[in-house]
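Budget justification, computational time. The allocation requested in the original proposal was used primarily to generate structure tokens for proteins on the priority list. As evidence of use, we reproduce two of the resulting records. The first is shown immediately below.
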Amino acid sequence: MLDEIIQIVKEAGQIMLKAHNIQEKVQSKVGRANFVTKYDVEVQQYLYGRLSELYPDAVFIGEEDTKQERDRRLCEVPYCFIIDPIDGTTNFIMDYHHSAISVALLSHGETAAGIVYDPYLEEVFYAARGRGAYLNGTPLKLHNLPLGDGLVAMGASPYYREKTQETFRLAAALFDRALDIRRSGSAALDICYVAAGRYVLFYELLLSPWDYAAASLILTEAGGCISSMDHQPISFTEGSSILAATPAAYEEFFQITVE
């Protein structure tokens, strides 16, 4: 079924690529700089429809649902899809081509498969539990680099401005130890970039499950580490801080935060 899910996700990517006059089709959501476009809704509806054909009894949790149902029981059903139709919506609105479709398949509360697709670069990151992680068919196996040998990525939690001071305090501390620091605007891609060895660490103080559900499996199947920033398992039923890294950089992060 994984190949079929990937094909559906790639088809949905065509909606993004064919989008036009995006800024004329934007609505604000709760939180500062939190937007939705008609294309977010179209991509999500397309995915719901096509994936329902593969899994008729599946439950769906998507960023653009009008009524979020993140009850724990939904993630414990035989099949549950967690979907971000366009991760990096602000990038998408501004014609900054760095956004992705993120689809995670959970089975009885455990991530069974994850797909993150960047249609602009035609890069498909994907993984199935116990079967490894891949980028366009090439296996991903990250090198265990420390902070000093790689790039660090950060998310600014723009919807939660009370997180700003702590976010940039950590950025300064990590910048002193890493080669450089980046801010891309797509958490799903940032986590996949750790899996691909492009970053050694990514952090953000508050994200929603659809931001990281698919990418989390891709990273762990590639040999990386992911948790909340207080060293707790990530949650698929509520928001969480996220720390994603190589094992070496992951341990260094916690040494820095206790200094």
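The second record produced under the same allocation is shown here.
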Amino acid sequence: MDANSECSDLRSRVAVVIPCYNAGARLRPVAARMAELVEHVIVVDDGSTDDGVTALTDDRVQVVRLDVNQGKGKALLEGFRAALKITGIECVCTCDADGQHAPDELINLYRAFVQSSADLVIGSRTFGERHVPLRSRLGNNLTIFITALLLGQRLPDTQSGYRLHSRRLVEEVLRSVPGGRYETEMEVIIRAARRGFRIVPAPISTIYETRNRSSHFHKVRDSFRIYRKLLTAVFYRR
């Protein structure tokens, strides 16, 4: 596939879903740049109480609103439903709203998606870099170990929200994943691994801000939910 054809396919075949909860001014540049890369950008407002979503005036961006905050997982599922209603969409990208994913890396993720015939491409950060806190490095290494042990597949960054999903995987997720908060992304991996979908990691930049107040990940509560989801899935199967 040449570069022009690749960009054309990216524009018409990929929908970008951006779940958002109180991301403030960080949301607008992310949505605007994604709208330059693809024809369909869907921002799911998960009951925000700030003016981040209302400040979006770009008519290239579709906004789906949830009346109250329901969690990132619920917002992702709403975005998936909206994406599948668009004719010709073969791939759904998810991207965080807070600027910690570089929109321009979408083309590299899409290239990996096409070349590997993947169902799920996970943008994988490098946690060995000095600016990443030790706690995050240790937590990621533990998750890699547990995931490899229980699912039989080594994935370098299971918590990255920068992902590409095939249409058939999105359809499977909507049939079988109830949705929740941050643990939903782990459940998508579990579902993909158990059902034989092809999962491929692809490198992305590590943009880590220790004082990013737009991140709503609770290190204790949400980490517990993620590990509980992983362990429950394995024991349920047994």
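A brief technical remark on that second record: The CA atoms of residues 52 and 76 lie 18 Å apart.
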